[in-house]
Write a structure and sequence with these properties.
YbaK protein, five-stranded mixed β-sheet, 5 helices, YbaK/EbsC family protein, YbaK/aa-tRNA-synth-assoc-dom, YbaK/aa-tRNA-synt-asso_dom_sf
């Protein structure tokens, strides 16, 4: 199958390549219940050498930057309690951690979660974290610009491979809250 965006050799419906996905992502695809059919979640094999956003879009298609989103894990703290959450923003922006995220989580302080926490709690590789398959108890803050895109390139849970997903699907994931202005100018 031809990928709807980017310059990839092939795109495979995620339900047809569950063995290529990390366990939490494969489980999420198996239990998929959004209005977008699971078969519209496409997996593309990529070289981990090109996993970082700038190198990736240069190698796989310059137009991908406007169609890509980054998922980061944040930690909000209030009164000794820590809440982990994920944020999905357009790749050309950065997450407004100290403003929008802190307010959305009702936290006194918010920061990016340490790498060991993000990887350990998500079950995904650093640099490949995706909103599909994250712990259901985590809030998932999604920039409104992401859900408006016809197709979005995101991580697959590991550095080798990406997912192509219709943008509106992200607003239907467990714990998702669509937020205006979550991503700010980079």
């Amino acid at each position: 199958m031809r990928a709807p965006i980017g310059d990839f050799d092939t795109a495979t419906p995620a339900p047809d390549c569950l063995d290529d996905l990390v366990v939490p992502v494969a489980d999420a695809v198996r239990g998929w219940s959004a209005s977008v059919p699971a078969e519209q979640i496409l997996y593309v094999e990529t070289d981990p050498e090109w996993a970082d956003t700038a190198a990736f879009v240069q190698h796989y298609g310059p137009g991908l930057l406007e169609q890509s989103a980054n998922c980061v894990v944040v930690a909000g703290r209030r009164g000794g309690e820590t809440t982990l959450a994920a944020c999905l923003v357009p790749s050309a922006t950065r997450v407004d951690v100290n403003g929008v995220v802190r307010r959305q989580l009702g936290a006194r302080k918010a920061s990016f979660a340490p790498m060991e926490t993000a990887v350990g709690e998500s079950g995904m590789e650093y640099g490949g974290i995706t909103p599909i398959g994250l712990p259901v108890e985590w809030p998932l803050l999604v920039d409104a610009a992401v859900v408006e895109l016809p197709w979005v390139l995101v991580g697959s849970g590991r550095r080798r491979g990406k997912l192509l997903v219709p943008g509106k699907a992200f607003g239907e994931l467990p714990g998702a809250v669509v937020v205006e202005g979550l991503g700010v100018g980079a």
